[in-house]
Amino acid sequence: MSTIHHIPLTDQASPVTFNEPHSLAIRLWHWTFFVVLTASLTTVLFGSTLFRTRDNIAGVQQELQEKGVTVTKDQARSVAHAYSDKLWDLHTWLGYGLAGLLLIRIIIEVAQPGEEKLRTKIRKAAGFKPPGRQEGDDATKRFVRHYVRVKWTYVLFYVLIGTMALTGLGLAFEDVPLFRNWHRGITNVHRFVQYFIYAFLLIHLIGVIRADLGRDKGLVSGMIHGKGSRED
Question: Whole-angstrom Cα distance, residue 186 to residue 163?
Answer without folding.
Answer: 10
